[in-house]
Design a protein that fits this description.
Largest sheet: 7 strands, mixed
Number of strands: 9
Order of helices and strands: HHEHEHEEHEHEHEHHHEE
Strand order of the largest sheet: 1-5-4-3-2-6-7
Shape: elongated
Radius of gyration: 24 Å
Helix content: 25-40%
Mean pLDDT: 90
Length: 298
């Protein structure tokens, strides 16, 4: 019987103590009373919690920049009489909160109303989402019950009438779960209008893009430095990626270091722009292609 099965049946705390103390702990199962009132029963486990560990991160952008983005979003909401928004995409959650989630099969969200900003994250991430939700709070859903994510959505948005979500991101299955969680709400799309808002770059965003280009140039130089006949594509890509990561760490020490990477192709592998890096060794006369991706905030 698995741990989850034992929890579902509500086995006692004493059982688990015996299980830890005795290699033959499974023999105790026949003497344990199945009691839904037991503390360990899964129905007694919390569905939503708060994990506010440490202090808020410095963030990628200034407080003023983040407030400007939220103000423009709320102006859009007011214009279209939208009471609240639930973002689900990486781009919008990151743009409006500075938190970039790592999905691994679990949903994430950012709730924005006219008076609150709150990210919704999975328990596996601990306090990191709260620290990186630069301008708001965070609520954590657990895995003890199914669809606890939508319990969080219901708690934060259940009282509102008109809700914006991203039609270009949410799939049909999750859209149904969303509407089931918010039966009194009307769903409208905010995916397209927020795309247009993100297209207008602020001075801080332009400076950030320029810094990214500078670091990408350093990565390109590292590619040229590593290229030689007989060197594998992967070795060239690794040298470029490591060089960019070290430059990000040097020049922007408060940034997260996720997913900086390099595409490098040679010879026949250059026939597709998105072909993966291989171990093919460079040969004299090869055409080579590269893409450098320094991720300075994510």
């Amino acid at each position: 019987m698995s741990l989850v099965t034992r929890l579902r049946h509500g086995l006692s705390t004493r059982f688990f103590r015996n299980l830890l103390q005795n290699d033959q702990g499974t023999k105790h199962t026949s003497r344990v009373r199945m009691a839904h009132t037991d503390t360990w029963h899964i129905d007694n486990m919390p569905s939503l919690i708060a994990i506010r560990n440490g202090e808020k991160a410095k963030g990628t952008f200034s407080k003023g920049e983040m407030e400007s983005r939220i103000t423009k979003l709320r102006n859009l909401m007011s214009k279209d009489n939208i009471d609240g928004v639930i973002f689900t995409s990486h781009h919008n959650i990151n743009y409006y909160s500075d938190f970039l989630y790592c999905e691994f099969g679990r949903p994430y969200g950012l709730v924005v109303t006219h008076d609150k900003i709150l990210s919704i994250s999975a328990n596996i991430d601990g306090g990191y989402p709260w620290r990186w939700t630069a301008n708001g709070d965070n609520i954590v859903y657990t895995d003890w019950q199914r669809n606890n994510y939508y319990q969080a959505v219901k708690q934060e948005l259940g009282q509102y009438g008109k809700i914006g979500c991203e039609f270009d991101h949410i799939n049909l299955d999750n859209y149904k779960k969303l509407t089931d969680a918010l039966p009194k709400s009307t769903m409208v799309d905010v995916g397209e209008p927020t795309m247009y808002l993100r297209m207008i770059k602020s001075d801080e965003e332009i400076a950030h893009i320029k810094e990214g280009a500078r670091i990408a140039d350093i990565g390109g130089g590292a590619v040229v430095e590593a290229m030689a006949e007989g060197v594998g594509e992967h070795e060239v890509a690794l040298h470029c990626t490591q060089t960019m990561i070290r430059e990000i760490a040097r020049s922007r020490p408060n940034m997260t270091l996720q997913d900086t990477w390099t595409w490098f192709q040679s010879g026949i592998n250059t026939d597709g722009a998105h072909n993966p890096v291989t171990t093919r060794k460079l040969q004299k006369g090869d055409v080579c292609s590269m893409n450098c991706f320094p991720m300075m905030g994510g």
